[in-house]
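Exercise 3.2. Students should predict the tertiary structure of the chain below and write it as structure tokens, then compare their answer with the key that follows.

Predict this chain's 3D structure.
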Amino acid sequence: MNKIFLIAFIGWLTFLAGSVFAKEVILDTGETYRQGNLTVTCGIALTEHVPRAFKECQHWDDFNKNCLFEKKTYIYKNLQCVEGCQYWEKFNNTCHYQTKCSFDPGQEWFVRTTCDKFDGFNNTCVNTNDIKIVQ
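Answer key:
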């Protein structure tokens, strides 16, 4: 009887330990997630004219041990464009303006949209700026 109880207890502990340390990562097609020496790419095989997307945590909550905001880095050949939080509010852990990247496969360049003028009172971007990223 003690042997069965011990086996059941060990099985329960193993299940509990596995679920406590589990991490869920949701990727869109073509996105890539990197952590340490592990790289996972979702979906279709990457083609020559599709940039790869890498996610990583930009703002981390040390107390709750979770990522509050992820930035994305798009890479195409030797070009790189980063979508991240440009205006972060620490008090509410909120991103008020996130930069955006768009890719033109015909021209093989990125356009990165940033906020040139930010209204801190209303927490809105008043004026944006497009930056072309070319080889």
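Discussion points: Strands lie at 31-35, 38-41, 52-61, 66-76, 79-83, 85-89, 94-98, 100-104, 109-119, 124-133. The two ends are 71 Å apart (CA to CA).
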